[in-house]
Amino acid sequence: MLNAKITGTGSYLPEKIVSNKDFESFLDTSDEWIFARTGIKQRHVIADNETSSSMAEIAATRAMQAAGVVANDIDLIIVATSSPDRVFPSTACLLQARLKINDCAAFDVQAACSGFIYALGIAHQFIKAGGAKKALVIGSEANSRILDYSDRSTCVIFGDGSGAVVLEASEEVGILSTHLHSDGEYQDLLYINNPIKDQKQHGEQAFMRMQGNDVYKVAVKTLGRIVDETLESNGLRKSDVDWLIPHQANIRIISSVAKRLEMPMSKVVVTIENQGNTSSASVPLALDLAVRDGRIKKGEIVLMEAFGGGFVWGSALVKM
Ligand code: ACO
């Protein structure tokens, strides 16, 4: 059976930064409230001429450069996004055209904030089965396009960005395991309605809606369980994990998972303060940051986890 290894990472954050203070001028909120409840200080927001696919193009190009592969080596593109450029064609197809890659399989995965973990899990299965040799796996989100800027309980939390990895068939062990779960019973706690249907029936634009407090409670419990599941299925101890790369939803959720792993926060890659919650892009953005600044080294064991609307949750244990 073939192994799948991450051979390159890349990311992109839009130039424009919106600080917590910027919200104070038009919302009943404060820098103090946002930082204390979430750990967020600022987030990046795309320009009018940017989209999920334009950000993905930059992140993917950087990942391919890091891996030493060219666009036409790629035989599979999976983009995780809940804020696609179009309903269809998929953002993966639009990215394929931007990268001028001919003929490979390209599709989107919609698993909200867990999208990148889902995409990585799917690409891993493709490679293990011999269905692909060099895959681009991307999380890309233009969250600012799906937020209601009069709803203080959501709009202060999310940011835009894109993160990518190249996953290659390899003799060496790379991805140790991925674990994907969902429970659609929770669909009404975090959702965006169908924009086409809503506009037609109610003349309303569809925006993200979240019962944050209820989501928080389930997220903490569920992520604790998936950490245990991931370690048990690999026969590893907590101390075998070198780095935790959590989905960046809330610093309090991140800290609770680190505590479950008995891991000091110095071993957790945290980007939420500067990036906010970039949904499916948050894990690959954090991974790229820690690879490029030299924190994560070859051979180290990284635990990635995420939780999002659905609910969907998952983890990936990776030897870098
Ligand atoms: N500024 C000031 N007050 C606010 C704001 C704001 N931006 N937003 C909400 N409030 C108010 C509420 O109206 C409420 O007021 P009330 O007591 O008068 O009713 C009060 O603050 C407390 O609200 P809660 O929702 O209970 O606040 P909480 O401490 O739970 O923090 C938060 C909210 C940050 C959203 C938190 O619940 C959270 O992080 N939830 C998890 C989010 C998550 O993990 N999502 C999954 C991934 S995202 C995805 O899949 C797309």
Notable traits:
5-stranded mixed beta sheet, binds acetyl coenzyme *A, 2 domains, alpha/beta, globular, 13 strands, Peroxisomal Thiolase, Chain A, domain 1, 320 residues, 11 helices, 4-stranded mixed beta sheet
Task: Describe the protein.
With about 325 residues, this protein is an alpha/beta fold. It is built from eleven helices and 13 strands. The strands form four sheets. It has a five-stranded mixed beta sheet with strand order 1-7-6-4-5, with helices on both faces. A four-stranded mixed beta sheet has the order 8-13-12-11, sandwiched between helices. The chain has a two-stranded antiparallel sheet with strand order 2-3. Helix 8 packs parallel to helix 9 (about 250-260). Bound molecules: acetyl coenzyme *A. Acetyl coenzyme *A (ACO) binds near residues 29, 157 and 308.
